[in-house]
C-alpha cells in the first residue's frame, strides 16, 4: 500500500542503517531503503518522502529541499557530523534536521586511539612490507607514546573520550576548544590551552572538531609552521579541517613526521593523491563510527529522533543546552549562526521556515 493510501509517512533511508533502527521506523512509517542513489535519483524520489535518513555519504543539498516541494519534514543524520546537510536550505524550507549525537562517540574515540598507536608503531606500513615478502625491523622503529604531549583539538564527546584513553596510555594531554567548560577538562585531568599553544607544544595532535566555516582548513601552511618539528597528526573528525595539499608539504618538509587519517575532503579521495600514496600516512576509509555496536546504537538513536519529529513530539520550547555559554545562547536566531558557531547542533526545530522553535544541544 502506498504512503498516500495507508496514511503513514514515508521515510527514505539512503545509506545502510542497523536493523533495530529500521524495525522502529517500520512500526510507524513506510520505509524505503534505497542505497547508492545518484543525486538525480535522490532529487526525483524526495518529493514523495516525509523524512530522509542519511549517513556521511549522501549530500543533502539545497536542490534536495527544493525538489521535495515542501513535503520533507525531517532529515535524520545517522551519526554526528551534519556538514553534509545544507542547514541554511533546511531552515528556509522549514525542515527539521536531527542527528544521532551520542551512539558512536566511543567507537570514534577508539578508532582515534587505534590510529594513534598504529601510526606510532608503523603497523600498517610494516604489515604491507611483510606481505610484500620483506622483514624490515630497522626501517620500522617507532616512537613511544608515554610521556608525550597530545593536543586534543575539539574537546567535545569524542575528544573527551579519546583524552581519557590517551591518559591511560601515560600521555600528557592538553586540549583546545573555545567552548569547552573548564570543569569538564578538570574532571578528565586535561589542561585547556589556546590554539597556538596547543600547536607549539604537541608531539601528537588529534582532531575532534566539527567541519564548519570556522574550522575549514584550520590546519594549513600557516598553522603547520607553528607546530613542533616532527609532530604526528590523527584525524577522525572531517577531512576538510585540514588543507590536504599543505599537509603533504608539511610532511615533505619534515614538520609533520606522520599522519593517520580516517576522513578526507573528498571521499573516497583520488587514488593518485599524494596524501593517499604518502609512505608516512596511514589511511582508513571513514571507519570511525563503523563498529557493530555503534551502528546499532546510531540506528536506534536516529529512528527515535525521526519518529519523534514526525509525531511532533520534539516541539517543546525548552532549550536544553547545559554546555553552551550564555553569550552564545543569546544568538539563537537565526539558527544557522548558532550551528556555525558551535558546530555541535543535535536537534533543531524550525517554525514556519523562519525562527527557531526548539534547539537541543548535546
Ligand atoms: N570518523 C568518524 O567516523 C567520526 C565519528 C564521529 C564523529 N566524527 C566527527 O567528529 C566530530 C566531533 O564529534 P563529537 O561527537 O565529539 O561532537 P561534539 O559536538 O561533542 O564535539 C565537538 C567539539 O568541537 C568543539 N569546537 C567547535 N569549534 C571548534 C574550534 N574552532 N576549535 C576547537 N574546537 C571546536 C565544540 O565546542 C565541541 O566541544 C563530528 O562533528 C564529526 O565530524 C567523525
Ligand atoms: O559524523 C559521524 O558520525 C561520522 O563521521 C560517521 O559517519 P558515517 O555514519 O558515514 O560512518
Brief digest:
This protein has helices spanning 3-6, 19-28, 39-45, 62-68, 87-92, 105-120, 123-131, 157-168, 182-188, 195-201, 221-224, 244-252, 274-277, 292-311, 326-329, 335-342, and strands at residues 10-13, 30-33, 51-54, 74-77, 96-99, 149-153, 172-176, 191-192, 204-207, 231-235, 256-261, 281-283, 345-350, 356-361.
Question: What does this entry look like structurally?
Answer:
With 362 residues, this protein is of the alpha/beta class. It has three domains: 10-99 and 293-323, 3-Layer(aba) Sandwich (Rossmann fold); 105-283, Rossmann fold (3-Layer(aba) Sandwich), CATH 3.40.50.720; 328-361. It has 16 helices and 14 strands. The strands form three sheets. It has a seven-stranded parallel sheet with strand order 8-7-6-9-10-11-12, sandwiched between helices. A five-stranded parallel sheet has the order 2-1-3-4-5. A two-stranded antiparallel ribbon has the order 13-14. It is globular. The two termini are 38 Å apart. Bound molecules: nicotinamide-adenine-dinucleotide (NAD) and 3-phosphoglyceric acid. This is phosphoglycerate dehydrogenase. InterPro entries: Ado_hCys_hydrolase_NAD-bd, D-isomer_2_OHA_DH_cat_dom, D-isomer_DH_CS, D-isomer_DH_CS1, D-isomer_DH_NAD-bd, NAD(P)-bd_dom_sf. One of its GO terms (molecular function) is phosphoglycerate dehydrogenase activity.
Sheet with the most strands?
A: 7 strands, parallel
CATH architecture of the largest domain: 3-Layer(aba) Sandwich
- The helix/strand class is alpha/beta
Q: State mean pLDDT (0 to 100 scale).
A: 86
Stretches where pLDDT falls below 50 for ≥5 residues?
315-362
> What are the secondary-structure elements, in order, as H or E?
HEHEHEHEHEHHEHEHEHEHEHEHEHHHEE
Bound molecules: nicotinamide-adenine-dinucleotide, 3-phosphoglyceric acid
User: Approximately what portion of the residues adopt beta-strand conformation?
Assistant: 15-25%
Termini separation comes to 38 Å
Highest CATH level, the class of the largest domain: Alpha Beta
If you compute it from the alpha carbons, what radius of gyration comes out, rounded to the nearest whole angstrom?
A: 21 Å
GO molecular function: NAD binding; phosphoglycerate dehydrogenase activity
Pathway: Amino-acid biosynthesis; L-serine biosynthesis; L-serine from 3-phospho-D-glycerate: step 1/3
Catalytic activity: (2R)-3-phosphoglycerate + NAD(+) = 3-phosphooxypyruvate + NADH + H(+)
Domain S-adenosyl-L-homocysteine hydrolase NAD binding: 138-292
Amino acid at each position: 500500500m502506498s504512503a498516500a493510501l495507508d496514511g503513514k509517512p514515508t521515510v527514505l533511508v539512503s545509506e545502510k542503517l542497523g536493523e533495530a533502527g529500521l524495525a522502529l521506523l517500520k512500526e510507524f512509517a513506510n520505509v524505503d531503503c534505497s542505497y547508492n542513489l545518484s543525486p538525480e535519483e535522490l532529487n526525483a524520489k524526495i518529493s514523495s518522502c516525509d523524512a530522509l535518513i542519511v549517513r556521511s555519504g549522501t549530500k543533502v543539498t539545497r536542490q534536495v529541499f527544493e525538489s521535495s516541494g515542501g513535503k520533507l519534514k525531517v532529515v535524520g543524520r545517522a551519526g554526528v557530523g551534519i556538514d553534509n546537510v545544507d542547514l541554511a536550505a533546511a531552515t528556509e524550507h522549514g525542515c527539521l534536521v536531527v542527528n544521532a549525537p551520542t551512539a558512536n562517540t566511543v567507537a570514534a574515540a577508539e578508532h582515534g586511539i587505534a590510529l594513534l598507536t598504529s601510526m606510532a608503531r608503523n603497523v600498517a606500513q610494516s604489515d604491507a612490507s611483510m606481505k610484500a615478502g620483506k622483514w624490515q625491523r630497522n626501517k620500522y622503529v617507532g616512537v613511544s607514546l608515554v610521556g608525550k604531549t597530545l593536543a586534543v583539538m575539539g574537546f567535545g564527546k569524542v575528544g573527551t573520550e579519546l583524552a581519557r584513553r590517551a591518559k591511560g596510555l601515560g600521555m600528557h594531554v592538553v586540549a583546545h576548544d573555545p567552548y569547552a567548560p573548564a570543569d569538564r577538562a578538570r574532571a578528565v585531568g586535561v589542561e585547556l590551552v589556546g590554539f597556538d599553544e596547543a600547536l607549539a607544544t604537541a608531539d601528537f595532535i588529534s582532531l575532534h572538531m566539527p567541519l564548519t566555516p570556522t574550522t575549514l582548513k584550520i590546519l594549513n601552511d600557516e598553522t603547520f609552521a607553528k607546530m613542533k618539528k616532527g609532530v604526528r597528526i590523527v584525524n577522525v573528525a572531517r577531512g576538510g579541517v585540514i588543507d590536504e595539499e599543505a599537509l603533504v608539504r608539511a610532511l615533505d618538509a619534515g614538520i609533520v613526521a606522520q599522519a593517520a587519517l580516517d576522513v578526507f575532503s573528498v571521499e573516497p579521495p583520488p587514488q593518485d593523491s599524494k596524501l593517499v600514496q604518502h609512505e608516512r600516512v596511514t589511511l582508513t576509509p571513514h571507519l570511525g563510527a563503523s563498529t557493530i555496536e555503534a551502528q546499532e546504537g546510531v540506528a536506534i538513536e536516529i529512528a527515535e529522533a525521526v519518529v519523534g519529529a514526525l509525531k511532533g513530539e520534539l516541539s517543546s520550547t525548552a532549550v536544553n543546552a547545559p554546555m553552551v555559554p550564555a553569550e552564545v545562547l543569546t544568538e539563537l536566531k537565526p539558527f544557522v549562526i548558532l550551528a556555525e558557531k558551535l558546530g555541535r547542533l543535535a536537534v533543531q526545530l524550525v517554525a514556519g521556515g523562519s525562527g527557531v522553535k526548539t534547539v537541543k544541544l548535546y
